[in-house]
Amino acid sequence: MDNLDKVAAIFQKCLLAENMTEGEVREFLASSRVQLRRCHKGEVVFNDGDVPQSLYVLLSGRVHIQKESFTGRHIFLSEIDEPGDVFGEVYLLMGRPYDMYVEAARDTELLVMESEAFSLTGKEVSEAARLVQRNLMRILARKAYFMHTKLKVLSSGSLREKIIRYLFWGMDGEGKIHLDVNRENWAQYLAVARPSLSRELGAMQQEGLLEVRGREIRVLDKAAFESYL
What is the model's pLDDT at position 16? Predict the structure, then answer.
């Protein structure tokens, strides 16, 4: 594999490599089942309906997970832009085709791992691959928790409650939130129209509940904020 030093340095920061030594990381990456893939902006990593063959780790760039509706509208589901983030693993382990597609939002580098590299079928694997298997289970547990949190947000009654529950999970001890997504993608996550989200945020600012500056949000009235939780 080319650029092994660069790839190993990023992979070692990834949850898949948690508690692995540099030697174990290099042993795993030296496997022929692990390849480097470069995607140009707009290139599809995999399509809706494709049968999973690999797990993907983002090395650099950004990808969008999307779904095409019956009318041809492209629905944004989530964005992956942190080096070391993993995607595609759930469908691979379930052995079912993708029901969404992934597209490079800008020029992107991915680490592509074929299923045999972390197979859970009981087949004999290296100690390094065994460590990756263990870490993969941890990633799945964390994603299950994320989905549980999203369900709590979407099950809220009013739009204001959805907004506040969404912000609550990302708020620091000083009441500050930095959004990782733009307004349009945030609206799609909440399953509302962008103008509706903007109007409600404007109303919350007028009431002195929040201060919104781009992707930076600060809770001004914590008592009123928490009354919606």
Answer: 83
- Confidence (pLDDT) at 81: 87
The sign of the dihedral angle between the CA atoms of 14, 20, 23, 26 is negative
Secondary element (H or E) of residue 136:
helix 127-154
Q: How confident is the model at residue 180 (pLDDT cuts 50, 70, 90)?
A: confident
What is the pTM (predicted TM-score) of this model? 0.62
Confidence of residue 7 (pLDDT cuts 50, 70, 90): confident
Burial 84-111 (b: 16+ CB within 10 A, else e): bbbbbbbbbbeeeebebbbbbbeebbbb
One DSSP character per residue, 47-76 reads: -TTPPP-EEEEEEES-EEEEEE-TTSPEEE
Nearest alpha carbon to residue 62 among 14, 9, 110, 7: 110
Q: Which residues contact 117 (CB under 8 A, 6 or more apart)?
A: 28, 31, 33, 34, 55, 125, 129, 132
d(CA 213, CA 180): 13
Longest dimension (CA), the chain: 62
Rounded Cα–Cα distance for residues 192 and 177 (Å): 20
Alpha-carbon distances of 7 from 101, 184, 221, rounded to whole Å = 25, 32, 45
